[in-house]
Amino acid sequence: MTDDPAVASTVREIGKTACWSLSTAKPGNGVDQLRDSSLDTYWQSDGLQPHFINIQFARRQTVCAIALYMDFNLDESYTPKRMKIRVGETFHNLEEIRVIELREPRGWCVIPLWRKWGEDVLDSILDPDGDDDEDDDDNTDGNNNRRRKKVPLWKRKPMRTHFVQIGVTSMHQNGRDCHIRQVKIFGPREDGHVTMMGRYGTSSAVMGGKKDGDGKNGGASAMMSGKLAHTTELMCQFSTIR
Protein backbone atom coordinates (compact mmCIF):
# COMPACT_ATOMS: atom_id res chain seq x y z
CA MET A 1 0.00 0.00 0.00
CA THR A 2 2.75 2.48 0.84
CA ASP A 3 4.19 2.02 -2.66
CA ASP A 4 1.51 4.49 -3.77
CA PRO A 5 3.06 8.01 -3.66
CA ALA A 6 -0.25 9.50 -2.49
CA VAL A 7 -0.23 7.19 0.52
CA ALA A 8 3.50 7.42 1.24
CA SER A 9 3.45 11.22 1.25
CA THR A 10 0.50 11.38 3.64
CA VAL A 11 0.94 8.58 6.17
CA ARG A 12 3.64 6.29 7.51
CA GLU A 13 3.46 2.69 8.67
CA ILE A 14 4.16 2.65 12.42
CA GLY A 15 3.81 -1.07 13.12
CA LYS A 16 7.57 -1.54 13.52
CA THR A 17 7.50 0.60 16.66
CA ALA A 18 4.86 -1.60 18.32
CA CYS A 19 4.86 -4.87 20.21
CA TRP A 20 2.55 -7.36 18.47
CA SER A 21 0.84 -10.33 20.11
CA LEU A 22 -1.91 -12.76 19.18
CA SER A 23 -4.56 -14.52 21.25
CA THR A 24 -3.62 -17.85 19.61
CA ALA A 25 -1.66 -18.97 16.56
CA LYS A 26 -0.98 -22.18 14.71
CA PRO A 27 2.77 -22.96 14.70
CA GLY A 28 4.36 -21.31 11.67
CA ASN A 29 1.43 -18.92 11.17
CA GLY A 30 1.94 -16.17 13.72
CA VAL A 31 3.07 -12.56 14.01
CA ASP A 32 6.03 -13.03 11.64
CA GLN A 33 3.71 -14.15 8.83
CA LEU A 34 1.20 -11.40 9.61
CA ARG A 35 3.89 -8.72 9.24
CA ASP A 36 6.20 -10.08 6.53
CA SER A 37 4.64 -7.97 3.71
CA SER A 38 3.83 -11.14 1.74
CA LEU A 39 0.27 -11.81 0.62
CA ASP A 40 1.07 -15.52 0.38
CA THR A 41 1.46 -15.99 4.14
CA TYR A 42 -1.08 -15.44 6.89
CA TRP A 43 -1.87 -15.59 10.57
CA GLN A 44 -4.02 -18.57 11.49
CA SER A 45 -5.66 -18.59 14.90
CA ASP A 46 -5.83 -21.84 16.85
CA GLY A 47 -8.49 -21.73 19.53
CA LEU A 48 -11.91 -20.52 20.58
CA GLN A 49 -13.43 -17.29 19.29
CA PRO A 50 -13.00 -14.37 19.52
CA HIS A 51 -9.49 -14.06 18.12
CA PHE A 52 -7.35 -11.02 18.87
CA ILE A 53 -4.45 -9.08 17.39
CA ASN A 54 -2.90 -6.83 20.03
CA ILE A 55 -0.77 -3.83 19.00
CA GLN A 56 0.95 -2.06 21.89
CA PHE A 57 3.14 1.04 21.68
CA ALA A 58 5.73 2.07 24.27
CA ARG A 59 4.49 5.66 24.05
CA ARG A 60 1.23 7.13 22.91
CA GLN A 61 0.99 7.20 19.13
CA THR A 62 -1.20 9.08 16.68
CA VAL A 63 -3.03 6.44 14.65
CA CYS A 64 -5.21 7.29 11.65
CA ALA A 65 -5.96 3.92 10.04
CA ILE A 66 -5.54 0.16 10.07
CA ALA A 67 -5.33 -1.83 6.84
CA LEU A 68 -5.99 -5.58 6.69
CA TYR A 69 -5.55 -7.89 3.72
CA MET A 70 -8.03 -10.78 3.40
CA ASP A 71 -8.87 -13.11 0.52
CA PHE A 72 -12.09 -15.11 0.61
CA ASN A 73 -11.20 -16.95 -2.61
CA LEU A 74 -8.19 -18.53 -0.90
CA ASP A 75 -9.32 -18.75 2.71
CA GLU A 76 -13.07 -19.41 2.48
CA SER A 77 -14.38 -20.33 5.96
CA TYR A 78 -11.23 -18.91 7.57
CA THR A 79 -12.14 -15.42 6.30
CA PRO A 80 -13.30 -12.94 8.98
CA LYS A 81 -16.91 -11.84 8.73
CA ARG A 82 -17.22 -9.53 11.73
CA MET A 83 -14.48 -7.57 13.49
CA LYS A 84 -14.24 -5.05 16.30
CA ILE A 85 -11.57 -2.43 16.92
CA ARG A 86 -10.79 -1.32 20.47
CA VAL A 87 -8.29 1.25 21.74
CA GLY A 88 -7.03 2.29 25.16
CA GLU A 89 -4.06 2.88 27.41
CA THR A 90 -3.69 -0.74 28.57
CA PHE A 91 -5.28 -4.11 27.94
CA HIS A 92 -7.63 -3.48 30.88
CA ASN A 93 -9.32 -0.25 29.76
CA LEU A 94 -9.97 -0.80 26.06
CA GLU A 95 -12.91 0.98 24.45
CA GLU A 96 -14.73 -0.32 21.38
CA ILE A 97 -14.69 2.27 18.59
CA ARG A 98 -15.46 0.35 15.39
CA VAL A 99 -17.53 -2.65 14.31
CA ILE A 100 -16.87 -3.95 10.78
CA GLU A 101 -19.12 -6.34 8.85
CA LEU A 102 -17.55 -8.03 5.81
CA ARG A 103 -18.89 -10.20 3.03
CA GLU A 104 -16.39 -12.30 1.09
CA PRO A 105 -13.59 -9.69 1.20
CA ARG A 106 -10.81 -9.86 -1.37
CA GLY A 107 -8.12 -7.24 -0.95
CA TRP A 108 -7.14 -4.47 1.44
CA CYS A 109 -9.71 -3.10 3.87
CA VAL A 110 -8.76 0.32 5.26
CA ILE A 111 -10.40 1.14 8.60
CA PRO A 112 -10.13 4.78 9.71
CA LEU A 113 -9.53 5.39 13.41
CA TRP A 114 -11.07 8.81 13.85
CA ARG A 115 -12.79 9.87 17.04
CA LYS A 116 -16.58 9.94 16.91
CA TRP A 117 -18.56 13.16 17.17
CA GLY A 118 -18.45 14.42 20.76
CA GLU A 119 -15.17 12.68 21.66
CA ASP A 120 -12.80 15.39 20.46
CA VAL A 121 -12.29 18.83 21.97
CA LEU A 122 -12.82 20.32 18.51
CA ASP A 123 -16.44 19.16 18.58
CA SER A 124 -17.39 21.97 20.97
CA ILE A 125 -15.96 24.72 18.76
CA LEU A 126 -18.34 26.90 16.79
CA ASP A 127 -17.55 26.61 13.12
CA PRO A 128 -19.58 28.74 10.67
CA ASP A 129 -18.47 26.57 7.76
CA GLY A 130 -19.50 23.32 9.41
CA ASP A 131 -22.72 21.37 8.99
CA ASP A 132 -25.49 21.04 11.56
CA ASP A 133 -25.04 18.01 13.77
CA GLU A 134 -28.33 16.22 13.14
CA ASP A 135 -27.43 13.42 15.57
CA ASP A 136 -26.87 15.68 18.59
CA ASP A 137 -30.14 15.90 20.56
CA ASP A 138 -28.63 18.46 22.97
CA ASN A 139 -27.44 20.77 20.24
CA THR A 140 -30.32 23.28 20.61
CA ASP A 141 -31.12 26.27 22.76
CA GLY A 142 -34.42 26.96 24.49
CA ASN A 143 -36.01 28.06 21.21
CA ASN A 144 -34.95 24.86 19.47
CA ASN A 145 -32.30 26.71 17.46
CA ARG A 146 -29.01 25.05 16.66
CA ARG A 147 -26.23 26.37 18.90
CA ARG A 148 -23.18 25.07 17.09
CA LYS A 149 -21.96 23.62 13.85
CA LYS A 150 -20.27 20.29 13.34
CA VAL A 151 -16.53 20.68 12.84
CA PRO A 152 -15.60 19.59 9.28
CA LEU A 153 -14.16 16.11 9.09
CA TRP A 154 -10.79 17.30 7.81
CA LYS A 155 -10.27 19.21 11.07
CA ARG A 156 -10.77 16.13 13.23
CA LYS A 157 -7.78 14.45 14.80
CA PRO A 158 -6.91 10.76 14.54
CA MET A 159 -6.75 8.62 17.67
CA ARG A 160 -3.87 8.96 20.11
CA THR A 161 -3.43 5.71 21.96
CA HIS A 162 -1.02 3.22 23.49
CA PHE A 163 -2.96 0.08 22.59
CA VAL A 164 -4.99 -1.05 19.58
CA GLN A 165 -6.81 -4.38 19.53
CA ILE A 166 -8.36 -6.04 16.48
CA GLY A 167 -10.97 -8.61 17.47
CA VAL A 168 -12.35 -11.21 15.05
CA THR A 169 -15.73 -12.34 16.37
CA SER A 170 -17.09 -14.48 13.52
CA MET A 171 -16.02 -16.13 10.28
CA HIS A 172 -17.69 -16.84 6.96
CA GLN A 173 -19.49 -20.18 6.63
CA ASN A 174 -19.47 -20.55 10.44
CA GLY A 175 -15.72 -21.12 10.46
CA ARG A 176 -13.88 -21.37 13.76
CA ASP A 177 -10.36 -20.08 13.09
CA CYS A 178 -9.33 -17.10 10.98
CA HIS A 179 -6.79 -16.20 8.32
CA ILE A 180 -5.58 -12.61 8.03
CA ARG A 181 -2.79 -12.20 5.51
CA GLN A 182 -1.39 -8.79 6.44
CA VAL A 183 -2.04 -6.00 8.91
CA LYS A 184 -0.58 -2.50 8.67
CA ILE A 185 -1.18 0.39 11.04
CA PHE A 186 -0.68 4.00 9.93
CA GLY A 187 0.00 7.37 11.52
CA PRO A 188 0.25 10.81 9.90
CA ARG A 189 3.52 11.51 8.11
CA GLU A 190 4.06 14.43 10.48
CA ASP A 191 2.97 13.14 13.88
CA GLY A 192 0.07 15.14 15.24
CA HIS A 193 -0.04 17.58 12.30
CA VAL A 194 -3.67 18.25 11.40
CA THR A 195 -3.59 20.72 8.51
CA MET A 196 -2.43 18.17 5.94
CA MET A 197 -5.50 16.05 6.58
CA GLY A 198 -7.60 18.26 4.36
CA ARG A 199 -5.46 17.45 1.34
CA TYR A 200 -7.71 14.67 0.12
CA GLY A 201 -11.03 15.88 1.52
CA THR A 202 -13.78 13.31 1.98
CA SER A 203 -13.45 11.35 -1.22
CA SER A 204 -15.30 8.18 -2.06
CA ALA A 205 -13.89 4.77 -1.25
CA VAL A 206 -11.46 3.16 -3.64
CA MET A 207 -12.90 0.44 -5.89
CA GLY A 208 -10.54 -1.73 -7.86
CA GLY A 209 -7.72 0.78 -7.50
CA LYS A 210 -9.63 3.64 -9.14
CA LYS A 211 -9.00 7.23 -8.14
CA ASP A 212 -11.48 9.55 -6.51
CA GLY A 213 -13.09 12.55 -8.14
CA ASP A 214 -10.18 14.84 -7.30
CA GLY A 215 -7.68 12.57 -9.02
CA LYS A 216 -6.17 11.45 -5.72
CA ASN A 217 -5.94 7.86 -4.72
CA GLY A 218 -8.93 6.88 -2.59
CA GLY A 219 -6.84 4.72 -0.26
CA ALA A 220 -4.95 7.76 0.97
CA SER A 221 -8.21 9.69 1.16
CA ALA A 222 -9.77 7.10 3.44
CA MET A 223 -6.84 7.19 5.83
CA MET A 224 -7.07 10.94 6.24
CA SER A 225 -10.81 11.57 5.82
CA GLY A 226 -12.27 8.99 8.17
CA LYS A 227 -14.23 7.01 5.56
CA LEU A 228 -13.99 3.25 5.12
CA ALA A 229 -12.25 2.21 1.91
CA HIS A 230 -11.72 -1.06 0.10
CA THR A 231 -9.51 -2.05 -2.79
CA THR A 232 -12.12 -4.36 -4.27
CA GLU A 233 -15.60 -3.59 -5.52
CA LEU A 234 -17.08 -6.60 -3.74
CA MET A 235 -15.88 -5.44 -0.34
CA CYS A 236 -17.12 -1.92 -0.98
CA GLN A 237 -20.55 -3.20 -1.95
CA PHE A 238 -21.18 -5.50 0.96
CA SER A 239 -19.08 -4.27 3.89
CA THR A 240 -20.20 -1.84 6.56
CA ILE A 241 -18.55 0.01 9.41
CA ARG A 242 -19.95 1.80 12.40
From TrEMBL:
Gene3D superfamilies: Galactose-binding domain-like. The keyword Cell division applies. It holds the Pfam family ANAPC10. Residues 1-212 form the DOC domain. Residues 127-152 are annotated as: Disordered. Residues 127-140 have a biased composition (Acidic residues). Keywords: Cell cycle, Cell division, Mitosis, Ubl conjugation pathway. The keyword Iron does not apply. InterPro entries: APC10/Doc1, APC_su10/DOC_dom, Galactose-bd-like_sf. Belongs to the APC10 family. GO terms for cellular component: anaphase-promoting complex. This is Anaphase-promoting complex subunit 10. One of its GO terms (biological process) is cell division. It comes from Skeletonema marinoi.
